[in-house]
Design a protein that fits this description.
Blueprint (H helix, E strand, L loop, with lengths): L1 E5 L8 E5 L10 E11 L1 H8 L14 E9 L3 H4 L8 E5 L9 E5 L3 E3 L6 H4 L3 H14 L7 E4 L5 H12 L3 E6 L2 H9 L4 E4 L5 H11 L16 E4 L2 H11 L5 E4 L11 H6 L2 E4 L7 H17 L6 E6 L3 H8 L8 E5 L7
Parallel strand pairs: 8-9, 8-11, 9-10, 11-12, 12-13, 14-15
Antiparallel strand pairs: 1-2, 3-4, 3-6, 3-15, 4-5, 5-7
Helix pairs in contact: 4-5, 4-10
Length: about 350
């Protein structure tokens, strides 16, 4: 089969299209998925570069994918009746990596893909939507009637966070850096959208938070601010978040690209919390909860991943360059995986 392989850590150039042996038959609790598309995420570039620690070489990168079930392990049919050979599915995390024609997955990593969504859209579900839901409701403990600030809302995680927050009854303040991005976030239902490149961005966010204040009790010297902040670029924004967040607010860091110096007194003054969040840290019950919530949002039509650009599998290096472009993308980047007959 065809697969992207990494033989040593490095830049995008280490992503190599190889012909590799077919995967083994699935184990008792495993599912073999024939993939049509794979999602590209910033975390894929960190793993490729070696930032997530040692790996056994060569390996196939990729956490997201979508396709059809090829084969089931002996215990899967009884435990997961929603999975059957030929079923359309989306994948988040796998045993063997998703930048390939096939992926071997544990059954909890495979979920039904509604018929209304393409495989390219399905490949954009996992990391972005599960991260957004977990950051909002598991780590951020967001509740209906509260206000959430979503930084970088035109990206994959940001779009999902805006959509899921609005569906849960939260007021949403969002930022985006381009006119197209701001228009998109407005279409998703954000109550206030601010240009994060504008010199008065932070003041505009403060003003917006004051107008959307949940009126929860707070000390008189603490101004109104968002109850939850979803932070996608903490090395740029975390100090600003601490000056902006409301009393006993929760800042959930889902993305970071460097180091930063902070004065903790800002958190002390507001009784604020700064919470890290990584999808790979979800415990089994948390994973099931997040997947069930995202699956319901997909099935009901509340959540529809937006695909910004599709690359051929062989162009994975170019996709890795694009996903780290500071200009960002209005949605997910996806790799199109050729069928076996296209080899």
């Amino acid at each position: 089969m065809l697969a992207i392989r990494v033989h040593s850590f490095g830049g995008p150039e280490v992503l190599r299209l190889d012909t590799v042996p077919a995967l083994p038959a699935p184990g008792p609790t495993q599912v073999l998925v024939r993939l049509s598309a794979a999602g590209v995420n910033p975390v894929d570039t960190y793993i490729r570069a070696g930032n997530y620690g040692p790996r056994e070489f060569p390996f196939t990168p990729g956490m997201d994918g979508a396709g059809v079930v090829e084969a089931l392990g002996a215990e899967v049919a009884a435990r997961r009746p929603d999975l059957a050979p030929g079923a359309r599915v989306w994948v988040c995390r796998s045993v063997t990596g998703t930048y390939a024609q096939f992926a071997l997955c544990e059954m909890h990593q495979v979920r039904p893909l509604p018929a209304r969504l393409s495989f390219e859209q399905g490949a954009g579900v996992g990391v972005a939507s599960l991260t957004a839901w977990s950051a909002l409701f598991q780590r951020g403990r967001a509740r209906a009637g509260e206000t959430v600030l979503v930084r970088g809302a035109s990206g994959g995680v940001g779009q999902a966070a805006v959509t899921l927050a609005k569906a849960a009854g939260l007021r949403v303040v969002a930022t985006a850096g381009t006119p197209e991005g701001r228009a998109l976030v407005e279409q998703l239902g954000a109550d206030v959208v601010v240009d994060h490149r504008a010199p008065d961005c932070e003041q505009r966010l403060l003003d917006a938070a004051a107008k959307l204040d949940s009126r929860a009790p707070r000390p008189a010297n603490i101004p109104a601010g968002p109850d939850v902040v979803i932070e996608v670029l903490a090395n740029v924004n975390l100090a600003k978040d601490l000056a902006l967040v409301g009393f006993r607010g929760r800042i959930v860091v889902v993305g970071n690209r460097g180091e930063i110096t902070l004065n903790p007194r800002a958190a002390m003054a507001r009784d604020a919390s700064v919470l890290g969040m990584s999808l790979m840290n979800l415990q089994p019950a948390e994973w099931e909860e997040a997947c069930a919530a995202v699956g319901a949002a997909l099935a009901s039509g509340v959540l529809t991943p937006r695909v910004a650009q599709v690359f051929d599998l062989a162009d994975a290096p170019r996709a890795h360059e694009r996903v780290m472009d500071p200009a960002g993308a209005l949605g997910k980047l996806v790799l199109r995986i050729p069928a076996e007959r296209e080899r």
